[in-house]
Design a protein that fits this description.
The chain is an alpha+beta fold. It is 23% helix and 15% strand. It has helices at 31-36, 49-59, and strands spanning 7-11, 17-22.
């Protein structure tokens, strides 16, 4: 069997291929295929507590419109 750099197979005790580990840095051509299957490749955004509080305030309707001409006079 041919060995390919960046791809390893895990086999069961009977010798059947069970899992394939693919190094996506070496084989970036797999990424569009995985995205079509529904895999989210981008890392999730880690929101800070201050941002989560801002989202909650916006959801409750506690938002204020600001005029750019009077930005510092909030």
């Amino acid at each position: 069997m041919t060995r390919i750099a960046g791809i390893t197979l895990e086999r069961t005790s009977t010798g059947r291929a069970r899992f394939a580990h693919i190094d996506l840095r070496k084989h970036s051509d797999f990424i569009p295929f995985l995205e079509k299957k529904g895999l989210d490749v981008e890392p999730p955004i880690k929101w800070t507590a201050k941002m989560q509080r801002s989202f909650a305030q916006a959801k409750n309707g506690e938002i204020y419109e600001v005029d750019m001409n009077n930005f510092w006079n909030v």
